Amino acid sequence: MSENNTEDHIILSIEEQMAIEQLEDLNSPLGDGLLVGLKNRLHPDQIEQLKPMYMEGKKDLFLSCGRKWGKTELIGYVLWKHALENPGSACYYVAPENSHARELMWNNNRMQRFLGKASGKYIQRITNDNMIIWFKNGSYIRLIGSDNYMVANGLTPHIAVYDEFKGFNPRWHTEFAPNRAAKAAPIIIIGTKPRAGNKNMDQYNEILEYMRNDSKSYVADRTTFDNPINHLPAQKEIIDREIAQLRERGDSDVVELEYYSRVVPGGKKAIFPMLRKERHIFAHNDIIREIKKDMKRMEWYCIADPGSTTCFATLFACIHPYTRKVYLLDELYETNQEGTSTRKMYPQMDDKMMEFYPNSDVSDDWVKGFDEAAVWFATEVMDQYGTYFMPTQKHLNKKEHGLSLIKDLLLHDLLIMSDRLTNLFTEMEKYAKDERGQIPKKHDHLIDCLRYLLGISNYNMVEVLQRRKQDNDDLRGRFRRKEDEEENDMENWEKNLWF
User: How far apart are CA 276 and CA 289, in angstroms?
Assistant: First the structure.
C-alpha cells in the first residue's frame, strides 16, 4: 500500500462478502415495518424476546403472544437465520396439524418467500408435497403437523419451532423430544394461551412450568400492543373494532386472552372469575406484620389433603376472630411419590407451624384437619409424632357450598393470600367447569384444603356480613352524632364567648 495513501482499505473474502449480504437480506425491513420506520426486519419487542437466545445463552423460548404481535414473522426469521448461518441444518416448523402448516405458512408463500425478492438466491429447490425448502448450503426447513406424530421419532432436528402448541397432539412432543435432546436442538414454543378445557392443557402447563424453572429457558407473555405496527391508525382501528365486538358479545375473557395474553380464569366456565392477583395476593412479610399484633387471638389452622400417589397438599392459615379475615400463609405441594410419606411431610408441617406462630403449642394452639379419605395419614402421624389430626367431615359440607363460600370471600376481600401460595393460585386461576358444566375432580388439592378449612372453622358468611353492616351503621351513627354536636355548638356560639 502506498505511503501517500492515507486511507486504510479492508479487503473482504468472497465468503465474508456473502455473509454481510446475507445479514442485510435477513434483517432488512419489509412490508408494514417500513411504515413505522423499522430499521430491522423485526420490531423492537421481537428483538428483545430473541435476545435471551442469541445473546444470553438461553436454549429454549416459550412465548405466549396476543394476536398480531408478530409471531409469524419471528418464526420465519428464526428458521431462516438458523438455516443460513448453520449449513446442513434440519429446521422444523411444527403446527397443530399438517393442514394448518400448509394454510398458515406454505400456501401463502410466507416461508418460501420470507426474504422477499432476495429469497431465491439462497434456495436450491422447493418440494411442495411435503413442504420442504432446500437451501444451497445443505440446510432445509420442513413444515409438518403434530398429527403426523408417527414420524416424529424418526426426525433429527437442529432447531424446532412449535406454533400454537395448545392445539398439538399430545403424542407429538413425547415422540419428538428425545431426538431433539440428542442434538441439544433449541426449541421455540410460541402462540396464544389455551382456554380452560383445552385437551392439551395438562401438557402445555407441564412444559411451561418446566421451562419456567429451567435456567436454560426463557418464558414471556407478550401483548398485541407490544407490536408498534398495531399502533398505526388503520391497524388500531381494526383491532379496536374487533375488541369492541367481542366485548358486546360478552366475550371479555377472549379479549384478555387473545389480545393481552392474560388468562381470565376459565373464561365463561370459570369457577373463580373474580380472582385477581393484584387484588388478592399480598407480599408475605406484609401479611405477617399485619397479623403479628393479634397473633395470640388468631385461630390457627393446618389442613392436609394427603395423597401418597398423586399429590400431598397442605394449607397453613389463620382467621381473625372478629373481622373473620382469612389469612392464607403458605402451602406444601408435593407431587413426587417418594416425598409424600408421613415421615417426609409432617416434619415440614411442624416447621411451618412454628415459623408462623413461634412458641405455640401444636397440640393446643393449632386446629389440624385432614381429608378422612386418607385415614392412614392420621393413624401414622399419631403413632409416630403423637399429634392428632381431626377429620374434615367433608360429607357434611357440599362441594358447591364450599366453592360458593370461597367466591364470597374473594368478592368481599376477606381472603388474604400470601405470595407464597403459587400452586393454590394456579389451581384457582385454571379451575373451570368442563364441557358438560360439571365441576372438575382434578388439580384441586389446595382448593379442597381451603374448603375443609372453612368447614372446620364453621365459617358463616351471613354473620360476617351482618357484623360488617352493623359496624358501618355504628360508624355512620357516630358521625351523625358528632355533626349534631357541632351544629348545636354553632347555634350557641355566643354562650361560649368570654369577654
Answer: 22
Q: Which residues is 91 bridged to in the sheet?
A: 141, 159
Looking at the chain, the number of H-run helices and the number of E-run strands are: 18, 15
Which CB contacts under 8 angstroms, 24+ apart, belong to 374-377? Answer: 374/304, 374/305, 374/306, 374/307, 374/308, 376/306, 376/308, 376/342, 377/304, 377/306, 377/342
Residue 54 burial class via C-beta count within 10 angstroms: exposed 0-12, middle 13-18, buried 19 and up: exposed
**Which one-letter amino acid corresponds to residue 258?**
E
Specify the pTM: 0.58
In order of 138, 204, 323, 329, 431, the CA distances from 197 in angstroms are 43, 12, 37, 30, 9
Alpha carbon of residue 78 to chain centroid: 24
Among 153-157, 217-221, 250-254, 381-385, the least confident range: 250-254
The H or E element containing residue 406 is helix 399-411
**φ/ψ of residue 287, rounded to 5:** -65, -45
Smallest CA-to-CA distance from 170 within 201, 193, 192 is with 201
Angle between helices 461-491 and 399-411 (to 10 degrees): 30
List the grid coordinates of 419: 405470595
d(CA 47, CA 148): 32
Spatial distance between the Cα atoms of 92 and 291, rounded to a whole number of angstroms: 55
CA distances from residue 22 to 16, 40, 142, 491 in whole angstroms, order as listed: 10, 13, 21, 90
The answer for residues whose C-beta is within 8 angstroms of residue 341's C-beta and 6 or more apart is: 308
Rounded distance between C-alpha atoms, residue 349 and residue 331, angstroms: 9
Residues in contact with 44: Cβ distance below 8 Å, sequence separation at least 6, in sequence order: 228
Q: Using alpha carbons only, how large is the chain's radius of gyration in Å? A: 30
pLDDT in tens, 122-163: 999 999 999 999 999 999 999 999 999 998 888 889 999 999
Encode pLDDT of 295-354 as tens digits: 999 999 999 999 867 799 999 999 999 999 999 999 999 988 888 999 999 999 999 999
Q: For residues 157 and 94, is the Cβ–Cβ distance under 8 A?
A: no
Identify the structural domains of the chain with CATH numbers, from first to last.
18-233 (3.40.50.300), 234-269 (no CATH), 278-461 (3.30.420.280)
Helix (H) or strand (E) holding 100: helix 98-101
**223 pairs with which residues across the strands?**
none
52/43 Cα distance (integer angstroms): 16
Q: What is the arrangement of strands in the sheet containing 415-418, beginning at the earlier edge strand? A: 281-282, 415-418, 326-334, 312-319, 299-305, 366-370, 390-391
DSSP tag of 89: -
Neighbours of 423 (CB within 10 A): 17
